[in-house]
Amino acid sequence: MLRYSVSIVFLLFHTLGFSQTMENDSLSVEKDSVADYWVRFEGDSILYSSIELDEVYLFGKLEFANKKEKLRYYILRRKTLKVYPYAKMAAERLVELTDSLQHIKKKRHRKKYTKKVQKYIEEEFSAELKKLTRTEGQILVKLIYRQTGKTAFDLVKELRSGWRAFWYNTTAKAFKINIKEEFHPESIHEDYLIEDILQRAFASNRLERQKSVLDYDYAQLSNKWKNGTAENKKN
């Protein structure tokens, strides 16, 4: 990760250095700092004074208070990596459904299309989801909220009926899965650990990144939990 960051910095300064050879007669700018140099991308006639780069996180070494905490993290990581693709897929299908419904005016046609998508999603998910354990199912519920900003209960309620959502919730409770559960890495330590697992997996290209719709900053979360008390981490 550190080598990757250094490479980006080197590339940035190399690009800026190369831009010094460009003709700037028409620009009345004094080059007193790096920010004053201009960059032209190949095939682009627009001059840029800066280059927007993706965020790059430098992860510290994982540290655990004891073997129990270490085992807990690695079990959570295995389960999170397993169910994240389903949450990502659910978010993608929801976006596709929402976009398509915007172009369907008649209520009857909207209802027919929604049922068609529902059937497709159920066929796509059901076989694999039945193989999940209770804890994997609960993590999936949290990640669905992370990716869509809606609980699994609300999604079922929107796509089906209130009664159907109630039935889903009652059935899930029998297996101790709460489909109304949300994702709050800023206040729940396990949720933060899940976010940490995801960010490390994104950085290593182990998982394909899909930005969360929730508003939080991973770096700030890391600082908070690093400096947090043991009591907070119990929540």
Write a concise synopsis of the structure shown.
With 235 residues, the chain is mainly alpha-helical. The protein has helices spanning 2-18, 67-101, 107-129, 134-148, 152-159, 162-174, 189-203, 218-226, 230-233, and strands at 39-40, 47-48. It has two domains: 2-48, no CATH class; 67-233, no CATH class.
Summarize this structure as a short list of keywords or feature phrases.
235 residues; mainly alpha; 9 helices; 2 strands; disordered N terminus
Provide structural commentary.
- Helix content is 59%, strand content 2%.
- It contains 9 helices and 2 strands; from the N terminus they run H-E-E-H-H-H-H-H-H-H-H.
- A two-stranded antiparallel sheet has the order 1-2.
- The longest helix is centred in the middle third of the chain and has 35 residues.
- It is globular.
- This is DUF4294 domain-containing protein.
- InterPro entries: DUF4294 (IPR025636).
- Pfam families: DUF4294.
